[in-house]
Amino acid sequence: MSSQTSPSRELPMSSPQPSPVAEAPTSGGETNPIRDAISEAIAEHKVILFMKGTPEAPACGFSARTVAALQSLDVPFAAVDVLPDPRIREELSAISDWPTIPQLFAHGELVGGCDIVTEMYESGELAEALQ
Amino acid sequence: MPSPDEIKQRIEASIPGAQAEVEDYTGGGDHFRATVTAAAFQGRSRIQQHRLIYEIFGSEIGGAIHALSLKTQSPQ
């Protein structure tokens, strides 16, 4: 028998198995204008909501509920519609490690999605977090 | 398409000691609401608590599971 070195080790190239999730090629992180634009928007706005549709015409019940909570607190907020380009949502979720929309950020930090925002609204914590 | 019971079992299997109640709240089989009680949530922010659950389902969230509404709490 010929003695080969570490036959158990599999080279990645021998089994090309792309993740089934990654439909679009993920750019390795050299230049990523969409991700940079999202990060800048989060940094520049004290309160910013990424949602489906617009505050005037939400395209999803969860986004609508989150907008309603913000509006009833009379908090000014920036809003970004994620629907026009699926990459916005992909990059946003990569930044925030949060899979769903809407996503509310305040002071550069993720506050939460619809469930957390609603809970915080009801307990009074939301107004405090957005100050 | 996962059933409420399957989602419940996966949550309880993944987070030791967790108790989950899951309902299909639109009846369409893809919008679920889960209330999860687990000692593992203690000392974690709401965001961290929800992430623990989202991680179980990975890309199914937004896919086969269109929406998973969460309420998390620690046992009293």
Describe the structure.
The complex is a heterodimer of chains A (131) and B (76). Chain A has 131 residues and is an alpha+beta fold. Chain A has a single domain, classed as 3-Layer(aba) Sandwich (Glutaredoxin). Chain A has 5 helices and 4 strands, in the order αβαβαββαα. In chain A, strand 3 and strand 4 form a beta hairpin. Chain B has a single domain, classed as GMP Synthetase, Chain A, domain 3. Chain B is globular. The mean pLDDT of chain B is 94. Chain B has a 3-stranded mixed β-sheet. Chain B has 2 helices and 3 strands; from the N terminus they run αββαβ. Chain B is an alpha+beta fold and 76 residues long. Chains A and B meet through helix 4 of A and helix 2 and strand 3 of B.
- Overall shape of chain A: it is globular
**Element order of chain B: H for helix, E for strand:** HEEHE
Could you report the average pLDDT of chain A, rounded to the nearest whole number? 85
* Uncertain parts of chain A: 1-24
Give the class-level CATH name of chain A. Alpha Beta
Mean pLDDT figure of chain B: 94
Please name the defining characteristics of this protein:
heterodimer, A: 131 residues, alpha+beta, Glutaredoxin, globular, disordered N terminus, B: 2 helices, 30% helix, 26% strand
